[in-house]
Structure formats: structure tokens, C-alpha cells
Amino acid sequence: MGISINNRVALVTGANRGIGKAIVASLIAHGAQKVYLVVRNPTSTQELEEQYGTKVQTIQADVADSASIKALAQQATDVSIVINNAGIGTPHSTLGDDVEADFQKQLDVNAFGLLRIANAFAHILEKNKGALVQLNSIASIKNFAQLSTYSASKAAAYSLTQGLRVELGAKGVTVVSVHPGPIATDMGVAAGFKDGASPSVVAEGIITSLQDGDFHLFPDPLAKQIEGAYQSFSDHDVMADLS
């Protein structure tokens, strides 16, 4: 079931830069009535507020803090499209003295952050016949050794997204799982990826996926290569064969 952006109220976590900032631009360009800019530092959205005026509203919140996200949901009861873009991606291999601490930190933001957002907004999205969009990664499907803990945290997030698709879908809520490859963002550069795709490719892909009612989005050239190898597996109902 597709969802039009026009006249919708949307919310974007991590809206102040990179992919999040591009998503805000695309939402407004496609007719969103208002976009909540959810960030840890409210001064970081000043440029967006100057550019879009009353079409945006900044709210301070942190996906790593349950109380913060519950308070966020209480302030944004009119939202019908929630895009959980906030995440962290520190390069780390599977071996190392501090690997447990690193993995725990990335899980707390990338996986538990999704759980916090989904649970806080489930009833709102059901009431408003809305959508939940989760920014995962090609690393949620294929582990990259230099980003091993990040890959594992995104794999957990992707698994949870699949569960949310079933549970929220039964309530009439559309769920989209986004799997970008290397994107030209600060995080992409820090991870060692050069010549990444523009964040706008991801943002416009989200708009199209929402309108078309697609679950998976592989927006950029490298991601599309992985999609070609993965799609037939993901579309095949293995459990049905076992029943």
C-alpha cells in the first residue's frame, strides 16, 4: 500500500546532516506539510529552520535514551511518517580489547534505537495510517570486516525491521527498510569509503518506495548490485516451504 507525501506530517531522526538533511529536503519538495527535525543538538538545525521556516520544527531527542523518545512521541502525535535515520558507524573489527564496548554502543543506537522509536510511535502511526522507514545498510546483509560491529548492529536492526513489517503491517502501517551502500557523508568518509553516492539518491528513493509501497530500498549503484543477488532469497518464503 503506497503513501503519498503530500500534506503529510513527517519526522526525521538525525535530521541535521548527511542523509537526514537530504531526506528533509525531499519531503518538503514533495509536499510534506511539516517535518519534525529530531536531533541531539537543537542548534544544529538552524540552517534548515532558516531555509524552510514554519515547515520544520526542531525537537531535541536521543534515540539512545528511552525517556527521551517517549517524550518525543508525546510531542509529535500528528506525525504519519517516521523516518529513523539516526545511527552511528565507528570502524571496528571483530577482534580487539574494546570490541564489546564498541558493539554495545552501536547496538544501543542502531538496533535498540529502532525498538524505542517503533514502540513509542506504533499507536500514532496506526491511528494516522502512516509509515515507518528504517535506515539500515548493505552492511546489514553482508558483514564488512573493517566495520564488523557496525555490520552486526545493522543486521540486528534489519531483523527487527522485518519483524516490524509483520506486526505494524497488520495494523495498516507501511514499513520500509533502506539499504544504502557507500554514501558521500561524514560517516562514509570515516569508514574509508570514497566517491560515495549523493545523499539525495537515498532521500528520493525513500519517497518513491513510500509511494510504491515497497519494503526494500537499495538506492545507489553498489546497493543495487547486492539487491540483484539478494532479492530472490528475501522474497522467497522459506518458512512456507517447511510447513
From TrEMBL:
PANTHER family: DEHYDROGENASE_REDUCTASE SDR FAMILY PROTEIN 7-LIKE, RETINOL DEHYDROGENASE-RELATED. It comes from the Bacteria. This is Short-subunit dehydrogenase. Pfam families: adh_short. Belongs to the short-chain dehydrogenases/reductases (SDR) family. The lineage of its organism: Bacteria, Pseudomonadati, Bacteroidota, Cytophagia, Cytophagales. Keywords: NADP, Oxidoreductase. One of its GO terms (molecular function) is oxidoreductase activity. Gene3D superfamilies: NAD(P)-binding Rossmann-like Domain (3.40.50.720).
